[in-house]
């Protein structure tokens, strides 16, 4: 359980953010992953997912 970021709150944010991405014509560019039973931590797997997203969508000239 993560009292700092409860899953119900994350789901609300996912819905709102995904709507914005859909409205911008880029629904495939939003990704949210909930790691259950990890608490409020930042794991190597989470870091790898984040960096891969940055590399794909934020690096100039690399967007696909």
What would your notes on this structure say?
It is a single chain. By secondary structure, the chain is mainly α. It has one domain (7-57). It contains 2 helices and no strands. The protein has helices spanning 7-23, 44-57.
Largest sheet features: none
Number of distinct beta strands: 0
Domain module tally: 1
| Cα Rg | 13 Å
Strand content: under 5%
**On the 0-100 scale, what is the average pLDDT?**
89
Order of helices and strands: HH
Low-confidence stretches: none
**Global outline:** flat
Task: Tell me the distance between the termini.
Answer: 35 Å
Query: Helical proportion?
Result: 40-55%
Task: Classify the secondary structure makeup into a structural class.
Answer: mainly alpha
Task: Figure out the total of helices.
Answer: 2
Indicate the topology.
Layout: H1 7-23, H2 44-57
